[in-house]
Amino acid sequence: MKAKRLRLTLIVGVLGLILALGAGAALAADLIKMKISHQPEFESFLTWQAIQEGIDKKAGLELEMSYFDSGMVQVEALPAKQWDVGALGAVPMVMAALRYQSYMIGMTHDDAFNVNIMVRPDSPIMKVKGANPKYPNMYGSADLVKGKTILVTTVSAGHYVLSTWLKRLGLKDSDVKLLNMEQGQAVAAFEAGKGDIVALWAPFTMSGLAKGWKKVSNGEDCAATVPLVFITSKEYGEKYPDRVARYLKMYFDQVDRQKKELHAQAAQYQKFLKDWAGIELNKEMIDMDIDLHPMYDLKRNLEVFDASKGKSQAYVWMDDLSTFFTDNKRFTAQEREKVMSTPFITDKFLKLAAGM
Length: 356
Description:
Elements: H1 2-30, E1 32-38, H2 42-52, H3 55-58, E2 61-67, H4 71-77, E3 85-89, H5 90-100, E4 103-110, E5 116-119, H6 142-145, E6 149-152, H7 157-168, E7 177-180, H8 183-191, E8 197-200, H9 204-210, E9 214-218, E10 227-232, H10 234-239, H11 241-261, H12 266-277, H13 283-291, H14 298-305, H15 313-327, H16 333-340, H17 348-354
Parallel strand pairs: 1-2, 1-3, 6-7, 6-8
Antiparallel strand pairs: 3-10, 4-10, 5-8, 5-9
Helix pairs in contact: 2-12, 4-5, 11-17, 12-13, 15-16
């Protein structure tokens, strides 16, 4: 009798396992697979966190996160369909809109405060402040900066802030020597003594501050707004609008959580930087990085993208950035007009996300 009960228990257990595995397989089959491209920056942490904690699966998604050093590298990978939705700077976004008619579908935050133009502490550039009285917090002067060698990731938010700073001093890109480097390379090269000035964004600015480098200007000091944006290809966005919206909904739920938890996420953010981005920062710098990233939630995005009363705030910011491209001869005035007349700035996906 005991043997029969044991066999029955085993049979029930095996059937239960089969049913559970079947249910799990069915659930996995129902998940929407999406490839999300990110750079080693704060906003990337929220996607990484969602994957680590299974939040993506609760939203019906199975996310794969791809690492890119900078925005233009992401843009160049877009035609090959290496990713579906990405987060990058507004500067390469303009190029993606021009070349591939990509959609700008949301913003993570304004990174102006975190994009820094930096020098070594003994630089003579630090001896002059407020040379342009309209921008009293900027250091440097035309005489001190002209002819200097600057390490910068070109066609990036860092390049935009750098060019704006130069413009406020009465200079152009052609008045200095620009060396194009990815952010990690620029930090290593500047530490080794190469160049006179370096343009960095967070968290690389934190590395610079930890090494004792000094900020001569950031985007806020020289009035250069630096939106970091979400982007998708025209093809993917038109074919799968609900997928894009579902990702945005999940991401902005993560933003709501981050705003509540703030420094409670410091240890997890520190782990993300080390494990995924290959960057090690101490607790003080981690806390500073969190404080310097006031993220845009879904409500703020809907406000920024609202064009019901004329041009949206998003359009105004992107119009300024397209002028930067034209001034630096990255494209012609005709190309600028072409890109800004296309509907690449859209709140369609935000509205879908808000309705979910």
